[in-house]
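debug: dumping io for the single-chain case to check the tokenizer round-trip. Nothing else runs in this session.
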Amino acid sequence: MHRFYCPDIADTLTLGEEDSKHCVKVLRMAEGDTIEVVDGNGNLYTCRIAMAHPKRCAVEVLESVQQSPHWGHRIVLGVAPTKNLDRMEWLVEKCVEMGVDRIIPLRCHNSERTVLKTERLKKIMVSAMKQSLKATLPQLDEMTPIEQVVAMPFDGIRCIAYCDEQLPREARHTLAGVYRLGSDVMVLIGPEGDFSPEEVQAATATGFVPVTLGESRLRTETAGMMAVAAIHAMDMAKT
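debug: decoded output
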């Protein structure tokens, strides 16, 4: 069944213009056809098309169910956007497909990109949410200085991953050694030039645990995806 996104579907009973066009003109769906609509807040609606208008497709709700994220706890990824925006878009898409609750773009001392327009990333997140059959749209923050992020209250496990050889490697733990099944978790991933020593020290001073993602030096987007994938893999292995 085709799935569409409309955050206010329960009130308007009408798809947005873009989804209406896709539904009626591209997919050629007609009145009486059944579709699924998600609102991004965890609600999944089974709907019947009442008026197949290409700009405002009206629907009748047949059933609504709450579809909570399958991982059952909060996963927050803080990551410095890559210089090549395509790589950041790829990271966001894959993390939403796997399952993440919040993505915080970090502004760091060594950031290659200090400005980030989030409109396109939000569209990618919506598409990934629908494609992966989820009903909850993750939160995407605006670019945030890392100093503000490490000072944020967070009731869960907080980790910072880095690979700077001048920083003490023996002080780092594996992500698997730190993570506890079902716990809320925040992982910070630095820019191409890594976190600065001062940023690592500031994070650890507020309770972040230094972690390693293995012996390989990973690109920023690979490290971010690996961290999210590892958390899901650990959850699945212990269930």
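debug: round-trip ok. The first helix runs from residue 9 to 12.
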